[in-house]
Amino acid sequence: MSEIAFEQLVYENQAVLIKVCNIFCKIQADKDDLFQEITINLWKGLPSFQGNSKLSTWIYRVSLNTAISKSQRKRKNLIRYTERLPEHNGLISNEDAVDEEQIQMLYAGIERLKPVEKALILLYLEEHSYSEIGDIMGISEKNAGVKLHRIKRKLEKILQPCTNLKTSEA
Questions:
Q1: pTM of the prediction?
Q2: Of 82, 86, 128, 163, which has the maximum CB count within 10 A?
Q3: Are residues 33 and 57 located together in one domain of the fold?
């Protein structure tokens, strides 16, 4: 594959790469480093891509595996979802504020997951089927379902104190 064709491939799939970087990194410089590392791994691995899966599935797999490996090497750079979502010039309704708060709590819960669990929940939240998740992660569809079920239960336990606090305040 030519460099120009590779650049086009990265451009067409940059949304996936950016999502993975945002889930695994907090600081923009770390996100940039991870993006570059993923791109390098895609370039190096492309000749070995055999076409047994969709190219987009392979790209996701390389991206997540790179992010997981990097986060295991450098645990201190795992994402911290403490940043607030940008304000919308006072146009946020009370209902939107509650939604934003729930999203922030979910991200805080996801932050406490192991890197592989983060990857699985990211794919689930992007509404990939268990079959697609299995293909991307290199596991069976059934194993993907079992792992996601466990991750959801784990997130419920993590978020339980937050939801108990909210119901006692009401």
A1: 0.64
A2: 128
A3: yes
